[in-house]
């Protein structure tokens, strides 16, 4: 059975796969444009785009805005007819400015998580840009829909539902992650579909629900489409591609990872996260790290006086290949990655397997 396309308003991706946003510097214009050209939705991570290039100088706030502009323009040039989104974390201190910048540049979608993006419609409404919140529960979806409806007379253009097997910072408490069977993505997705239905009816439009977190192969894609999802978001699978913007050493960390290497860490920003265990994280666990001087003031929830390390710098070090001074975030199934491929090869493989299981 042929896979359906993914429609978000007037946007239509031939393949119902959205590539997840990965910072710092893992999904930039290179990866996003490749996914877009292959028929999916490519996503640039808006987190600290300027840090990987010294040309932007030391004014971090200004630099991040200019770097975001440049990455969006690069992606547009590389994928002129594709769909490009940008993932902007609610928790960053320059959230409003970054969203406004993306909208000014004509981005197709703004995807926002790491908090509830209750004011996102303020910057989106009246433009062609689509507003896509990330949630981890039907309750969160209902809160966002109710708030947007009441304050902005607007509803989400799509909703990404991220389950507990995702990579990076997670929208679950540590005890919930210890009891994943009580918080399965396949249970949460139908609940979110039900939660958005009243708003679909009120606004007379489809609100596509996109399943995310631990989705690894075509069988997973088929499973969630059968459960009613309009598409899936995948991040981990796109790291080990030639087009991914990370260093070869970062990609190799995925290929070398064993199942027991995938661990839950306590991030300096106060949230649990999933990463590949290494010597850097071992030192953190042993309290062998001391707080760094904060150069970036990037996340409202991070207290530099108490943080054992600067997470922005650690992620940047890893992106550049220095994993002795950083670490790689990843999804639960990262250990299953065994080779580096081109994005179009990966997309073909996923589509073929998904169609065989529909």
Number of helices: 13
Kindly report the spatial arrangement of strands forming the biggest sheet: 3-11-10-8-7-6-5-4
Q: Rg, please?
A: 19 Å
How many strands, what sense, and barrel or not for the largest sheet? 8 strands, parallel
Work out the number of β strands. 13
| Secondary-structure element string | EEEHEHEHEHEHEEHHEHEHHEEHHH
Q: Extract low-pLDDT stretches.
A: none
- Mean of residue pLDDT values: 92
User: How large is the share of residues in beta strands?
Assistant: 5-15%
The termini sit apart by 6 Å
Q: What is the percent of helical residues? A: 25-40%
Helix and strand content put the structural class at: alpha/beta
Described by the principal axes of the CA atoms, the overall outline is: globular
Tell me briefly what this model is.
This protein has helices at residues 29-37, 60-78, 95-104, 120-124, 138-152, 174-177, 185-203, 218-226, 236-239, 248-256, 279-285, 311-319, 343-356; strands at residues 6-8, 11-13, 17-19, 41-45, 83-87, 109-112, 130-135, 159-162, 168-169, 209-212, 231-234, 262-266, 272-276. By secondary structure, it is of the alpha/beta class. The termini are close together.
Describe the 3D structure:
The chain is α/β, with parallel strands linked by helices and 358 residues long. Helices cover 37% and strands 15% of the residues. It is built from 13 helices and 13 strands. The strands form 3 sheets. An 8-stranded parallel β-sheet has the order 3-11-10-8-7-6-5-4. Strands 9-13-12 form a 3-stranded antiparallel β-sheet, with no helix packed on it. A two-stranded antiparallel ribbon has the order 1-2. Strand 10 (209-212), helix 8 and strand 11 (231-234) form a beta-alpha-beta unit. Helix 1 (29-37) packs parallel to helix 2, helix 5 runs parallel beside helix 7 and helix 8 crosses helix 13 (343-356). The chain is globular, with a radius of gyration of 19 Å.
């Amino acid at each position: 059975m042929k896979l359906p396309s993914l429609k978000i308003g007037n946007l239509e991706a031939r393949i119902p796969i959205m590539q997840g946003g990965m910072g710092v510097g893992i999904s930039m214009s290179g990866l996003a444009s490749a996914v877009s050209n292959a028929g999916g939705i490519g996503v640039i991570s808006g987190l600290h785009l300027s840090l990987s290039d010294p040309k932007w100088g030391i004014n971090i706030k200004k630099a991040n805005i200019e770097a975001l502009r440049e990455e969006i323009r690069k992606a547009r040039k590389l994928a002129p007819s594709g769909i490009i989104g940008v993932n902007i974390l609610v928790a960053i201190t320059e959230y409003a400015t970054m969203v406004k910048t993306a909208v000014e540049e004509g981005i197709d979608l703004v995807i926002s998580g790491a908090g509830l993006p209750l004011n996102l419609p303020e910057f989106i409404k009246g433009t062609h840009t689509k507003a896509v919140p990330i949630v981890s529960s039907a309750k969160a979806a209902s809160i966002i829909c109710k708030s947007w409806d009441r304050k902005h007379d607007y509803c989400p253009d799509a909703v990404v539902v991220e389950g507990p097997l995702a990579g990076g910072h997670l929208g679950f408490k540590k005890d919930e992650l210890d009891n994943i069977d009580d918080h399965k993505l396949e249970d949460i997705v139908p609940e979110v579909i039900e939660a958005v239905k009243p708003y679909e009816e009120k606004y007379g439009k489809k609100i596509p629900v996109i399943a995310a977190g631990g989705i690894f192969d075509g069988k997973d894609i088929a499973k969630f489409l059968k459960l009613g999802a309009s598409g899936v978001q995948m991040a981990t699978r796109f790291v080990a591609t030639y087009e991914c913007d990370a260093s070869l050493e970062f990609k190799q960390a995925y290929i070398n990872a064993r199942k027991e290497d995938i661990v839950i860490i306590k991030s300096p920003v106060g949230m649990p996260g999933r990463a590949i265990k290494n010597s850097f994280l071992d030192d953190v666990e042993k309290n062998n790290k001391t707080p760094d001087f904060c150069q970036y003031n990037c996340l409202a929830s991070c207290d530099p006086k108490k943080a054992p390390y600067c997470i922005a710098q650690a992620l940047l070090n890893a992106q550049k290949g220095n994993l002795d001074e950083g670490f790689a975030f990843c999804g639960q199934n990262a250990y299953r990655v065994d080779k580096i491929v081109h994005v179009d090869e990966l997309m073909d493989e996923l589509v073929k397997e998904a169609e065989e299981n529909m």
